[in-house]
């Protein structure tokens, strides 16, 4: 690692340790690191949005004489009227266009991908002659019982209530799997940072050894 | 209602048979060269179209029925009983109640549902003269929360008991908000904590702190990743759609009730068709399932 | 307060300390762990293995630095495998804090394999509103991305000749740490029937198994475990090298193993404490 990398990685290592002080309590170091990351990511996003969204999608087409882009520009500016009590009614046009077009794109596709595709792939053959067929039975029981649990037009009594109980057990098993994967995900982030700190310390040790031996920064 | 269900159940079967008889047509002669062009209607998505129309029809029908005052039964949600018990407990202990409405803005449906539940909690709380603390994450939600609490107190006939200072804006920063809420829990030691809305990583921080103070906790969110944390740290959890069902149950708002009943009917049809499809697949008949398959 | 009650009321900072120590000690004294490769990861690897030189694979990189620990290894491993096989890469980023992530991967990996921008790979860049961008790319990549990330018009890039939309790429691999995956499934696969596989964080993995089961995605790399499985396969076939320190996910598996064992131990102790306290209360 060169001098520049050592310095910047050192800053990164310092900020990692600042964040981890939260494990003890809400320290000023944690607050400093948190505010820094919030500010930097907001600033970075603003710049990226300007150069990748605003310039190529509005300024460049207008400079090229594509005046039709004035319409979305005006709709966008109308959104800012939400901050004015007198003119906030103008923002409803932009919101209506945005929500309407978004809903128009999304609803049929969500119905197709989240309902129909899942529904058709749950229609599985059952049986006991193979492990796959037995697993199909478990899937079908899980799907039906979870649907029964979220049925609000009938009290959960009798057989219906029993099926709903199987449904809640199915959901809890799913939550458990999600919980376990979440623990794995969080440990992964910790593990990677610890490995980064270890490797940085080894690089720093080597750098300082060379610095003191040869007296020159790399 | 039962007759309507049967009519609606037969409709897709009728359409299926139309499709099935169409597909039995014999081969035609080879046509001349054609050039493709963008179509206005994609016939390969006709199943999606029909299902959407049917679902929209359900929603509109039930909303109309709710507006006309028709009785629409919605079962009691277990967590809502716990809210009443918790309010009673807080009255006995003389401690406040804490209500957290999530960290999303009013454009999120969960926050809207949370505000409806807040209004009902305020109505319950007003009758018992228990302080209701509502720390809020976003400025716009503060105004809505103030209005919901004020309406709740007014409905209970105790408008003078409403304290505007109890609905307070903390901060829009996620973990700073969690830290602020934790501080309120540790200082005020509320007897009950209600957490309804959209939560992210701060959910476990707040739920654990509430658990450590010994408060009764009832939570509800549709964010699947946070449900395990609420389930382990809270006494009652409203899972996913139960949050919206609770808001429909408490408010009896026609649009909410109508949508809930329509989705229930859709679920019933899905269950029936799923059982039918599974039985047919088990006996090797795949035509029924293939109608639902999207090309 | 008896032992079980003390277990139940243990300050969480002790748990943080124990896990922290276990992670640090395992990081200093690592060991090899056996790895089982799941079918959903193998299906992505085998698919890329079946591609021919000159085929184009699209990678949608939609994550920010906060989840790069889990997702960066996947992106590196897939890119290295593709470049070694002379498969061309078309990359894009739909997360606002992600352009730098793609730039970091592609600039490093392209140097390793002497790949040329515009000939062997094209990096389209970032555009806001991922759903609309995916819908537009399904018609023509040039609609949302008239130029690449470096400002070169797409039509002047040799690789983009004949590459119009998703129909011209063999598959799309979306590596995402947020809601971008849903949009790729809905719009790219749902609307345009694009062949899609995904790589997601551990937290999100369980949400996407239904899509694997329904065939909407043909493969799923879940979290750091999935990334380590992919690296294991890639190392076996020589696409990545342990000597060059290219197994960034695989080397954290010992830490995962030991820390998970500690977490399981605490869960067991906590449950024992819970049931014993409950038993004691019922006796009283």
Describe this structure in words.
The complex is a heterotrimer of chains A (218), B (295) and C (284). By secondary structure, chain A is mainly alpha-helical. Chain A folds into two domains: 1-65, no CATH class; 125-218. Chain A is built from six helices and no strands. Chain A has helices at residues 3-20, 28-63, 70-79, 91-121, 131-149, 158-214. In chain A, helix 1 (3-20) crosses helix 2. The relative contact order of chain A is 0.07. Chain B has 295 residues and is of the alpha/beta class. Chain B has eleven helices and six strands. Chain B has helices at 2-23, 46-67, 78-93, 109-128, 139-155, 174-188, 202-212, 227-233, 241-251, 254-282, 287-292, and strands at residues 97-102, 132-136, 167-169, 192-198, 216-221, 236-239. In chain B, helix 6 packs parallel to helix 7. The two termini of chain B are 34 Å apart. Mean pLDDT of chain B is 86; it is low at 20-24. With 284 residues, chain C is of the alpha/beta class. Chain C folds into two domains: 3-30 and 256-283; 39-248, Rossmann fold, CATH 3.40.50.10160. Chain C has a six-stranded parallel β-sheet, with helices on both faces. In chain C, helix 2 packs antiparallel against helix 10, helix 4 (68-84) runs parallel beside helix 5 and helix 4 (68-84) packs parallel to helix 9. Chains in contact: A-B, A-C, B-C.
């Amino acid at each position: 690692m060169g001098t520049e990398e050592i310095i910047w990685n050192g800053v990164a290592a310092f900020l990692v340790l600042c964040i981890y002080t939260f494990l003890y309590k809400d320290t000023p170091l944690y607050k400093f690191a948190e505010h820094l990351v919030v500010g930097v990511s907001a600033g970075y996003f603003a710049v990226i949005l300007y150069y990748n969204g605003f310039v190529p999608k509005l300024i460049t087409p207008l400079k090229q004489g594509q005046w039709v882009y004035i319409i979305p520009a005006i709709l966008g500016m109308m959104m800012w009227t939400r901050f004015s009590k007198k003119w906030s009614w103008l923002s409803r046009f932009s919101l209506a266009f945005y929500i309407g077009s978004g809903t128009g794109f999304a609803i049929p596709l969500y119905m197709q991908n989240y309902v129909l595709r899942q529904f058709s792939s749950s229609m599985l053959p059952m049986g006991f002659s193979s492990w796959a067929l037995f697993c199909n039975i478990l899937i079908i029981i899980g799907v039906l019982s979870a649907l029964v649990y979220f049925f609000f037009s009938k009290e959960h009594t009798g057989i219906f209530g029993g099926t709903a109980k199987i449904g809640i057990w199915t959901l809890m098993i799913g939550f458990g799997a999600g919980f376990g994967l979440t623990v794995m995900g969080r440990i992964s982030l910790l593990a990677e940072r610890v490995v980064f700190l270890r490797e940085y310390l080894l690089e720093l040790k080597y750098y300082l050894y060379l610095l003191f031996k040869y007296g020159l920064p790399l | 209602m039962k007759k309507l269900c049967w009519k609606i159940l037969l409709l897709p079967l009728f359409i299926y048979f139309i499709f099935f008889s169409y597909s039995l047509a014999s081969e035609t002669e080879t046509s001349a060269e054609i050039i493709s062009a963008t179509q206005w209607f994609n016939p390969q998505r006709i199943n999606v179209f029909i299902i959407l129309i049917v679902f929209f029809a359900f929603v509109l029908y039930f909303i109309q029925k709710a507006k006309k005052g028709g009785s629409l039964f919605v079962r009691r949600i277990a967590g809502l009983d716990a809210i009443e018990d918790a309010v009673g407990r807080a009255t006995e202990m003389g401690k406040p109640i804490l209500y957290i409405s999530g960290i999303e803005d009013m454009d999120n449906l969960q926050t809207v549902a949370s505000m409806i539940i807040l209004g009902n909690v305020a109505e319950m709380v007003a009758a018992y003269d228990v302080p209701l603390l509502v720390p809020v994450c976003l400025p716009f939600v503060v105004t809505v929360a103030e209005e919901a609490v004020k309406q709740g107190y007014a409905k209970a006939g105790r408008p003078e008991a409403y304290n505007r200072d109890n609905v307070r804006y903390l901060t829009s920063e996620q973990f700073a908000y969690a830290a602020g809420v934790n501080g309120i829990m540790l200082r005020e030691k509320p007897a009950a904590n209600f957490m309804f809305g959209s939560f992210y990583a701060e959910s476990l921080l707040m739920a654990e702190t509430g658990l450590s103070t010994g408060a009764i906790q009832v939570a509800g969110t549709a964010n699947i990743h946070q449900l395990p944390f609420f389930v382990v740290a809270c006494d009652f959890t409203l899972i996913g759609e139960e949050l919206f069902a609770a808001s429909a149950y408490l408010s009896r708002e026609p649009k909410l009730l109508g949508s809930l009943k329509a989705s229930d009917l859709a679920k019933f049809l899905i269950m029936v068709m799923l059982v039918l499809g599974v039985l047919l697949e088990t006996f090797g008949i795949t035509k029924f399932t293939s109608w639902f398959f999207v090309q | 307060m008896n032992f079980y009650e003390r277990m139940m009321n243990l300050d969480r900072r002790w748990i943080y300390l124990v896990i922290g120590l276990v992670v640090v000690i395992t990081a200093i004294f690592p060991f090899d762990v056996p790895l089982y490769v799941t079918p959903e990861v193998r299906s992505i690897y085998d698919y890329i293995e079946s591609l021919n030189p000159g085929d184009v694979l699209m990678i949608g990189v939609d994550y920010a630095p906060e989840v790069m620990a889990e997702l960066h290894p996947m992106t590196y491993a897939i890119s290295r495998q593709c470049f070694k096989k002379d498969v061309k890469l078309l990359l894009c980023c739909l997360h606002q804090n992600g352009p730098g992530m793609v730039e970091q991967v592609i600039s490093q990996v392209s140097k390793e394999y002497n790949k040329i921008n515009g000939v062997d790979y094209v990096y389209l860049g970032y555009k806001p509103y991922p759903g609309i961008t995916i819908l537009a790319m399904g018609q023509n990549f040039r609609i949302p991305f008239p130029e690449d990330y470096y400002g070169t018009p797409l039509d002047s890039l040799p690789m983009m000749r004949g590459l119009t939309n998703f129909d011209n790429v063999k598959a799309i691999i979306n590596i995402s740490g947020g809601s971008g995956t849903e949009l790729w499934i809905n719009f790219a696969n749902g609307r345009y029937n694009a062949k899609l596989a995904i790589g997601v964080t551990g937290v999100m993995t369980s949400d996407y198994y239904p899509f694997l089961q329904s065939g909407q995605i043909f493969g799923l790399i879940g979290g750091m475990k999935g990334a380590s499985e992919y690296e294991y396969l890639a190392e076996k076939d020589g696409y990545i090298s342990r000597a060059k320190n290219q197994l960034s996910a695989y080397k954290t598996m010992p830490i995962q193993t030991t820390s998970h064992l500690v977490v399981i131990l605490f869960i067991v102790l906590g449950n024992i404490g819970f049931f014993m306290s409950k038993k004691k209360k019922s006796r009283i």
